[in-house]
Amino acid sequence: MIRVSVVGAKGRMGATVVDAVKNAPDTELAKALDAGDDLTQITPENTDVVVEFTVPAASLDNVLALVNQGVNVVVGTTGWTDEKLARVKEALASHPDVSVFIAPNFAISTVLAENFAAQAAKYFESVEIVEMHHPNKVDAPSGTAIHTAHAIAAARKDAGMGPIPDNTQTDGGSRGQVVDGIHVHAVRLRGLNAHEEVLFGNPGEQLVLRADSFDRSSFMPGVLLAVRHAGENPGTVTVGLDNYLDL
User: Fold this and answer.
1) Which residues are annotated binding-site positions for NAD(+)?
2) pLDDT confidence of 168, banded at 50, 70, 90?
3) Residue range 108-214, CATH number
4) Most buried of 121, 152, 194, 229 (most Cβ within 10 A)?
């Protein structure tokens, strides 16, 4: 049995993770901690891997504390930057037996859509991303959309493509945030959960890739997949569930 502790256990996603860990045949719940709880309760003696689902403002400190405790970490909190990742890599240098996995999104459908988008990117002149979430989400654009934009931009660069055509005469305006040259639009609407569209365009044609997660349960197979792979890459930070899929 894989012993799993959950940090952020009283949050919407954390509580769902707790239930998933309890119900999976190969995992058991070790500790369920939330804001204000002492993370030093989590040790290699009682925990094989920690799932961290909190908020961007707290996640970095939580991950650093858990790395220092010597336990593997699976992170579902978004808002990660290159600077934050660098901090985690520095911490892992002193704990080479520990691994950290960060998922911009745990939904298999979304991970596949991102992979398909990177494949399609080199065939289309234009591309934009629209991400749509519930209004309780604290970050915009979503970490998933940012990760998708980077993947598309990298594919376009490898293909030797130039900037996306855009003659809009505004300074930002309603054109969305530009992430690595890709326009990303964020919608926050009551009734939505987590949705992403990637729109590709050429003269006379359009391709739309869309992934919808209607319920938090859609993320649990991905969370458990990451838990089962925890510790495979000691001393490193792994980003993206695609690393554990046969793509």
Assistant:
1) 8-13, 34, 76-78, 103-106
2) confident
3) 3.30.360.10
4) 152
